[in-house]
Write a structure and sequence with these properties.
Strand order of the largest sheet: 1-2-3
Organism: Cotesia typhae
Oligomer: single chain
Protein name: Ras-related protein Ral-a
Bound molecules: guanosine-5'-triphosphate, magnesium ion
GO molecular function: GTP binding; GTPase activity
Main location: membrane
Strand content: 25-35%
Helix content: 25-40%
Subcellular location: Endomembrane system
Protein backbone atom coordinates (compact mmCIF):
# COMPACT_ATOMS: atom_id res chain seq x y z
CA UNK A 1 0.00 0.00 0.00
CA UNK A 2 1.41 3.33 -1.01
CA UNK A 3 0.05 6.35 0.84
CA UNK A 4 1.84 9.12 -0.96
CA UNK A 5 4.94 10.27 -2.77
CA UNK A 6 6.64 13.58 -2.01
CA UNK A 7 8.89 14.88 -4.75
CA UNK A 8 11.67 17.33 -3.98
CA UNK A 9 13.54 18.76 -6.98
CA UNK A 10 16.95 20.36 -6.65
CA UNK A 11 19.41 21.47 -9.29
CA UNK A 12 21.24 18.17 -9.24
CA UNK A 13 18.74 15.55 -8.24
CA UNK A 14 15.16 14.59 -7.64
CA UNK A 15 14.20 12.98 -4.39
CA UNK A 16 11.11 10.79 -4.10
CA UNK A 17 9.93 9.98 -0.62
CA UNK A 18 7.25 7.33 -0.47
CA UNK A 19 5.65 8.05 2.86
CA UNK A 20 4.72 4.51 3.84
CA UNK A 21 5.13 1.28 1.89
CA UNK A 22 4.20 -2.14 3.24
CA UNK A 23 6.87 -4.71 2.41
CA UNK A 24 6.24 -8.26 3.63
CA UNK A 25 3.82 -6.91 6.23
CA UNK A 26 6.24 -4.32 7.53
CA UNK A 27 5.75 -0.59 7.10
CA UNK A 28 8.80 1.21 5.85
CA UNK A 29 9.56 4.63 4.47
CA UNK A 30 11.37 4.64 1.15
CA UNK A 31 13.55 7.53 0.08
CA UNK A 32 14.71 7.47 -3.54
CA UNK A 33 17.27 9.86 -4.94
CA UNK A 34 17.49 10.15 -8.73
CA UNK A 35 20.88 11.48 -9.79
CA UNK A 36 20.68 13.73 -12.84
CA UNK A 37 23.95 14.45 -14.60
CA UNK A 38 25.82 15.50 -11.45
CA UNK A 39 27.87 12.34 -11.88
CA UNK A 40 30.55 14.66 -13.28
CA UNK A 41 31.00 16.43 -9.95
CA UNK A 42 33.00 14.00 -7.86
CA UNK A 43 32.32 15.64 -4.49
CA UNK A 44 28.55 15.80 -5.00
CA UNK A 45 28.48 12.29 -6.42
CA UNK A 46 30.41 10.77 -3.54
CA UNK A 47 28.09 12.46 -1.05
CA UNK A 48 25.05 10.89 -2.71
CA UNK A 49 26.76 7.51 -2.87
CA UNK A 50 27.67 7.77 0.81
CA UNK A 51 24.05 8.41 1.80
CA UNK A 52 22.73 5.52 -0.34
CA UNK A 53 21.71 2.22 1.24
CA UNK A 54 20.96 0.54 -2.07
CA UNK A 55 21.69 1.33 -5.70
CA UNK A 56 19.82 0.92 -8.98
CA UNK A 57 22.42 1.29 -11.71
CA UNK A 58 20.49 1.99 -14.91
CA UNK A 59 21.94 1.94 -18.42
CA UNK A 60 20.33 1.96 -21.85
CA UNK A 61 20.49 -1.32 -23.80
CA UNK A 62 20.67 0.84 -26.95
CA UNK A 63 23.82 2.66 -25.89
CA UNK A 64 27.08 0.83 -25.35
CA UNK A 65 28.68 3.85 -23.64
CA UNK A 66 26.05 3.82 -20.92
CA UNK A 67 26.74 0.12 -20.30
CA UNK A 68 30.49 0.79 -20.12
CA UNK A 69 29.81 3.59 -17.62
CA UNK A 70 28.13 1.15 -15.19
CA UNK A 71 31.54 -0.40 -14.47
CA UNK A 72 32.86 2.95 -13.31
CA UNK A 73 29.78 3.59 -11.17
CA UNK A 74 30.10 0.20 -9.52
CA UNK A 75 33.75 0.93 -8.68
CA UNK A 76 32.98 4.44 -7.40
CA UNK A 77 30.14 3.15 -5.22
CA UNK A 78 32.25 0.34 -3.78
CA UNK A 79 35.08 2.76 -3.10
CA UNK A 80 32.73 5.07 -1.14
CA UNK A 81 30.61 2.38 0.56
CA UNK A 82 33.39 -0.17 0.99
CA UNK A 83 30.87 -3.06 1.05
CA UNK A 84 30.63 -5.61 -1.78
CA UNK A 85 27.27 -6.78 -0.46
CA UNK A 86 25.55 -3.41 -0.61
CA UNK A 87 22.08 -3.87 -2.21
CA UNK A 88 22.75 -3.26 -5.90
CA UNK A 89 20.72 -3.94 -9.00
CA UNK A 90 21.90 -3.64 -12.59
CA UNK A 91 19.07 -2.42 -14.83
CA UNK A 92 19.07 -2.48 -18.64
CA UNK A 93 16.44 0.06 -19.66
CA UNK A 94 14.61 0.60 -23.00
CA UNK A 95 13.65 -3.05 -23.45
CA UNK A 96 10.91 -1.81 -25.83
CA UNK A 97 13.67 -0.92 -28.35
CA UNK A 98 14.91 -4.46 -29.11
CA UNK A 99 15.68 -3.55 -32.73
CA UNK A 100 18.12 -0.88 -31.51
CA UNK A 101 19.81 -3.10 -28.95
CA UNK A 102 23.58 -2.65 -28.70
CA UNK A 103 24.19 -4.46 -25.40
CA UNK A 104 23.37 -8.16 -25.54
CA UNK A 105 21.49 -9.89 -22.75
CA UNK A 106 24.46 -12.25 -22.28
CA UNK A 107 26.89 -9.35 -21.93
CA UNK A 108 24.75 -7.62 -19.29
CA UNK A 109 24.06 -10.86 -17.41
CA UNK A 110 27.78 -11.64 -17.49
CA UNK A 111 28.59 -8.38 -15.77
CA UNK A 112 25.87 -8.78 -13.16
CA UNK A 113 27.10 -12.31 -12.38
CA UNK A 114 30.63 -11.06 -12.06
CA UNK A 115 29.40 -8.46 -9.57
CA UNK A 116 27.11 -10.95 -7.83
CA UNK A 117 24.02 -8.77 -8.32
CA UNK A 118 20.70 -9.32 -10.10
CA UNK A 119 20.02 -8.04 -13.61
CA UNK A 120 16.62 -6.82 -14.81
CA UNK A 121 15.57 -5.36 -18.16
CA UNK A 122 12.95 -2.62 -17.99
CA UNK A 123 11.10 -0.19 -20.18
CA UNK A 124 10.19 3.18 -18.72
CA UNK A 125 7.96 3.55 -21.79
CA UNK A 126 5.84 0.41 -21.45
CA UNK A 127 6.57 0.04 -17.68
CA UNK A 128 7.71 -3.54 -18.27
CA UNK A 129 9.47 -4.80 -15.10
CA UNK A 130 9.57 -1.31 -13.55
CA UNK A 131 7.65 -2.39 -10.48
CA UNK A 132 9.69 -5.59 -10.33
CA UNK A 133 12.97 -3.65 -10.28
CA UNK A 134 11.62 -1.22 -7.69
CA UNK A 135 10.51 -4.03 -5.37
CA UNK A 136 13.62 -6.13 -5.94
CA UNK A 137 15.99 -3.45 -4.71
CA UNK A 138 13.94 -3.05 -1.50
CA UNK A 139 14.39 -6.76 -0.78
CA UNK A 140 18.11 -7.06 -1.41
N1 LIG B 1 11.81 4.05 -25.91
C1 LIG B 1 12.21 4.34 -24.66
N2 LIG B 1 12.71 5.58 -24.40
C2 LIG B 1 13.11 5.85 -23.13
C3 LIG B 1 13.00 4.89 -22.09
N3 LIG B 1 13.49 5.45 -20.94
C4 LIG B 1 13.88 6.69 -21.26
N4 LIG B 1 13.66 6.94 -22.57
C5 LIG B 1 14.00 8.17 -23.30
O1 LIG B 1 15.41 8.33 -23.24
C6 LIG B 1 15.77 9.71 -23.07
C7 LIG B 1 16.62 9.90 -21.82
O2 LIG B 1 15.84 9.60 -20.68
P1 LIG B 1 16.16 10.26 -19.28
O3 LIG B 1 15.13 9.79 -18.32
O4 LIG B 1 16.31 11.74 -19.44
O5 LIG B 1 17.57 9.61 -18.93
P2 LIG B 1 18.48 9.89 -17.65
O6 LIG B 1 19.42 8.75 -17.56
O7 LIG B 1 17.62 10.19 -16.48
O8 LIG B 1 19.32 11.17 -18.05
P3 LIG B 1 19.97 12.23 -17.03
O9 LIG B 1 18.93 12.58 -16.02
O10 LIG B 1 20.33 13.39 -17.91
O11 LIG B 1 21.16 11.57 -16.43
C8 LIG B 1 14.46 10.47 -23.05
O12 LIG B 1 14.20 10.93 -24.35
C9 LIG B 1 13.42 9.43 -22.66
O13 LIG B 1 12.15 9.70 -23.18
C10 LIG B 1 12.45 3.59 -22.40
O14 LIG B 1 12.32 2.69 -21.58
N5 LIG B 1 12.08 3.39 -23.72
MG1 LIG C 1 17.33 11.76 -15.22
Amino acid sequence: MLLGIFVIETQFSTRYIESVVVLDGEEVQIDILDTAGQEDYAAIRDNYFRSGEGFLCVFSITEDDSFQATQEFREQILRVKNDENIPFLLVGNKSDLQEKRKVSLAEAQGRSQQWGVPYVETSAKTRENVDKARKLIFKL
